[in-house]
Amino acid sequence: MPGALLAADLWISEYLTPCDVWQHGVTRLLAHRQTSFQEMSIVESGPYGKALVLDGKWQTCTGDEFLYHEPIVHVPCSLHGAPKTVLIAGGADGGALREALKWKSVERVVVADIDGEVIQACRELLPEIHQGAFDDPRAEIAVGDAWDYVASTPNTWDVIIADLTDPIEEGPAFKLFTREFFALCRNALRPGGLFVNQAGSMSPPLSHLLSRVVKTIGSVFPQTSLISANVPTYGSQWGLALASDRLLNTRPDPAVIDELLATSLQGQPLRMFDGQTLLGLLQWPKYLRDAVAAETCIYTVDAPPKFFGQSLGTGKS
């Protein structure tokens, strides 16, 4: 009998390459709908807890989300030192918002996401991730196109976090991986501000997408680097592109960072991030450094990225 020795009979399948499939067992479907912009599911997934799935792509889950949300927020915030204003493009699940609000210096965090239905579903069904962050008086929700929001806020932000879905051509995020959007982000940052963007898989068969994103960001920002995030449910090491007008210190003193975190953070303690972790996250492998150096493709609105793979599993109806 299918599934008799397993814990799930329903599976979400994602192609990592044309020959490799990553599967997540689903024990319960909590929500599923086609919004105005994308297909959304919230599921229970066994040992990794509850998960958000958009357009068949695994976005985040309660079991390992901290391995993504802590780096994407605390790396740029730590390198800045005392951010007051943070913009999160995307971030409907509230995990990045939760982490940004831990900084005592932060006075305002805006989540600019195009899909209000996903935000509402996450507020209701994924409290383990947002932990009430949406109700913090410093938090603002701007339902609408992040492109337009960024364009309307020049010289405003100390940190901009592009916590986006993958650039699927039919999805809502593909134009936010282009030179034009990155230029808007640079213009929206205050002097010395930092920008971070989820840039894709570090797996060698897919790393050309990441290297092109980093190269495109580097065509706009004078300083770029890469954060290496290990999120088991993504199926491979994940890259977060980091950029700024300021010189990026990719070899910070762990003791200095630990002291900064001890005096600057409030709320629930961090689970994976500290000074030693930051030092490791900022070191990225030679094959990717070589790939970015050799890359010539720049993503633009007229020539955006084309992301490989759509879910073929029974998680899609």
Secondary-structure blueprint of this entry?
Blueprint: E1 10-17, E2 20-26, E3 28-34, E4 39-44, E5 50-54, E6 57-61, H1 66-80, E7 85-90, H2 95-100, E8 108-113, H3 116-125, H4 127-130, E9 139-143, H5 146-151, E10 157-163, H6 179-188, E11 189-201, H7 207-218, E12 223-230, E13 237-244, H8 254-264, H9 275-281, H10 286-294
Parallel strand pairs: 7-8, 7-10, 8-9, 10-11
Antiparallel strand pairs: 1-2, 3-4, 4-5, 5-6, 11-13, 12-13
Helix pairs in contact: 7-10, 8-9
In short:
This protein is an alpha/beta fold. Helices cover about 30% and strands about 30% of the residues.
The H-and-E topology, N to C, reads as EEEEEEHEHEHHEHEHEHEEHHH
Largest sheet: 7 strands, mixed
- Name of the CATH superfamily of the largest domain: Vaccinia Virus protein VP39
Oligomer: single chain
Number of strands: 13
The shape, in one word, is globular
Annotation field: number of helices:
10
The assigned CATH architecture of the largest domain is 3-Layer(aba) Sandwich
First-last Cα distance: 23 Å
Beta-strand share of residues: 25-35%
Named CATH topology of the largest domain = Rossmann fold
